[in-house]
Structure formats: structure tokens, C-alpha cells
Amino acid sequence: MPHPRRRRLTPLPALLALPVSLALVACGGPVEVDVPKLSAADQTTCDAFLDDLPPTFAEQDRVEIDPSDAPARAYGDPAIVVTCGVGKPKGFDLTSSCEQADGVGYYIPDEQYTDQEADLTLYAAGYRPRIEVAIPASYRPGAVAAAMSVLAPLVSEHLELVEPCDDGG
């Protein structure tokens, strides 16, 4: 007959492992995203744009979002989030300097551009509807160039250029 103490201790490793597995499930839930208000036309445009996004982005697999019908896609953990239909970014105007990729200008707020340790949000700000890509600092600098390259043909195909930005040249 097993020792009583041993019988009580045997399930302990399983009990200790339980909260860890529950924590992993809790952390792996959908990425919460903001839902911008869109006109019917912008919603249609955003749907087409988002449907054409690839299943991987900056070498990260697509993950679920909440709400699932938001005009957004998320990739990786921490998540890179692409949102369609966002408002005009603070600081963006006709004189704003932009990074160019395949003919598409992307606005990056100055304070984020210079601080490589900061999370970064880039915008296809001169287009309608506007696209925002939130990139966690852990993916910098490679994900920024990858995001601009992947998005450029889709932005050109689906969105309307309404306010070009200066490429600094």
C-alpha cells in the first residue's frame, strides 16, 4: 500500500500545471481591436482590402480578433494589427513627410520614427479609407518595411488617393 503522504503529493504536479495551461489559453484569446465607424462605401472598400491580405504578415500568422467582424486583421503575438477606416492621424497634413514603398506613401509620427524601442503606427494616411498598422516594438525594424511592401499593391488597388504626402525628395 502506498505511503499516505505520497498519495497526496502525487497529484500535486498535475495541479501545479493546471494554472499554467489555463493561463496559456487565456493569453491566446482573440486580439481586441477598435471598430471605426464606416460609411457603407468605406465598409465595402475595407472588406475587399482586408479580404486580400495574406494569411501571414511580416512572417507572423493571422490570429483571431474581437469583435470578429471588425474592419481589421491581426498577426502574431504580440499582435501586428491592420485596421481599415481609421481617422486622420494627429500631425498628418499635406506637408507631412512620408516613407515611400512601391508608390504608396506611409506616414509615421516623428516621435515613433526616431525611437526604435517604441511601438510604431504607420498609416496609409493619404488614402480613403485610411489604413493604420500598429507594430509592436519587438518587430522593429524589419516588420515596418515588410508591412509597407505587402500593403502597397493592396492600397493602390483598393483605396483612393486623396491627399498625397511628401516623400522628402
**How does the overall form come out from the CA principal axes?**
globular
The average pLDDT value, as a whole number, equals: 82
Strand order of the largest sheet: 2-3-5-6-11-9
- Count of folded domains: 1
Structural class: alpha+beta
Rg result = 21 Å
Notes on the protein architecture:
There is one protein chain. By secondary structure, the protein is an alpha+beta fold. It has one domain. It is built from five helices and twelve strands. A hairpin with a 4-residue loop joins strand 5 and strand 6 (80-86). The N and C termini lie far apart (84 Å). Mean pLDDT is 82; it is low at 1-26.
Summarize the structure.
With 169 residues, the protein is α+β, with helices and mostly antiparallel strands. Helices cover 33% and strands 25% of the residues.
Topology summary:
Layout: H1 4-9, H2 12-27, E1 31-32, H3 40-51, E2 56-57, E3 60-63, E4 65-66, E5 72-75, E6 80-86, E7 99-101, E8 104-106, H4 110-114, E9 120-124, E10 127-128, E11 130-135, H5 142-158, E12 160-161
Helix pairs in contact: 3-5
